[in-house]
Amino acid sequence: MATDITLLWASGSHACWRVMIALEEKNLQGYNQKQLYFEKGEHKSKEVLEINPRGQLPAFKCGDLPLNESCAACFHLECKYKSQGTKLIPDCEDEKALILQRVFEVNALTEKSSIVLYYNWIVPEGERHDSAVKRNKEALTAELKLWEGYLQKASSGFIVGKNFSLADVIVYPAVAYLFQNGLSEQRYPKLAEYYKGLMNRPSIKASWPPTWKNAPKQETLKDI
Amino acid sequence: MATDITLLWASGSHACWRVMIALEEKNLQGYNQKQLYFEKGEHKSKEVLEINPRGQLPAFKCGDLPLNESCAACFHLECKYKSQGTKLIPDCEEGRALILQRVFEVNALAEKSSSVLYYNWRVPEGERHDSAVKRNKEALTAELKLWEGYLQASSGFIVGKNFSLADVIVYPAVAYLFQNGLSEQRYPKLAEYYKGLMNRPSIKASWPPTWKNAPKQETLKDI
């Protein structure tokens, strides 16, 4: 039941967004939710720490069960609510395996994006180096080439196979995040096509980060 | 069939070790395998790149399907060979959910361990700072406290009362810490977990060969 589910989330957090997309896809609208703000330090509040001792978002509970790793939450929702909403994990074994591969692989993409986007946030002033900034950008560029390649081979607008799957739930927010931060659509046409192609999917549209709706796009990644 | 499976691996790589434990647990001994050496740059060789374009280990193939993410490979082996060997994912929904949680969470532990253990490998000389080293050690300490907490009520396994996929994936990361000198006194529950599973057949059979005769490192003794 949607009312057994609780999600504390922040706008723009790709990990939170994944869970929201999964909830929409499984027809679980009406879950208990609250938008929090990193800038106000709300991710370290008592209500978050009660669910997620790491003080991170998402803080997610299904019944009494905390499941703060966003991918774990998405897998769990698909298993528990298998008979309703979109089928996010196909029966075909090979496709299931490739979904697993992309789900675990997306961490490399988000890690490399974060170190470029949040360098000044992650690294104290006295420890910053232009050489590190350059290296991080090169690493992100190499990573993006891989994902552009995966989408070259994918023919149907989804990251795996011919249907929207758990891999899209988990990968799409990471890709959207890149374009929200100015990634070049000319340099990464397949990623751009993927991004635009799923933008109006109901679950994605319904959960689109509210702080992105009226804000101008950032330009941080335009030279990547 | 074991002979459809290929694994290129390196000793001491916790990601490779996970896959080897899973293969043992699913009674898939006899798979095609080759030990490679990072020090010789063999992870960037043509035979690795053909399976894993990232030039990382493990490089793993099940039939024609490359599955280089170690956790993905472990999940796949459990699903494909569900009816043989140890049942690594229980039917119980809550047990399964907690396994998923720990599997995805172990990345935080592995990353924070690596930041401390491989600082000089990852960070070029001109960019190293004592303040960063200190911060990385503090982060690892906080992370270890969490895992010590997860094991307080344990039956010897990271989730539930049976060996599961969570142990396949978490155990190598924990063993790695003790191989590098983590204090058993300061982390008694982690130490108990480490020693308790050391002689499990799948773990014993796949124990990193380079650890067998090598002295333990001391890098983490003050953590």
UniProtKB/TrEMBL annotation, chain A:
Location of the GST N-terminal domain: 3-85
A Pfam short name: GST_C_3
Domain of life per record: Eukaryota
Sequence ranges assigned to domain GST C-terminal in this UniProt record: 92-220
Similarity annotation: Belongs to the GST superfamily.
Record-given protein name: Glutathione S-transferase rho
From TrEMBL, chain B:
Family the UniProt entry places it in: Belongs to the GST superfamily.
Lineage, top ranks: Eukaryota, Metazoa, Chordata, Craniata, Vertebrata
Record-annotated GST C-terminal domain positions: 92-219
Organism name: Oreochromis niloticus (Nile tilapia)
InterPro entries linked to this entry: Glutathione-S-Trfase_C-like, Glutathione-S-Trfase_C_sf, Glutathione_S-Trfase, Glutathione_S-Trfase_N, GST_C, Thioredoxin-like_sf
CDD domains: GST_C_family, GST_N_family
Record's protein name: Glutathione S-transferase rho
Domain GST N-terminal: 3-85
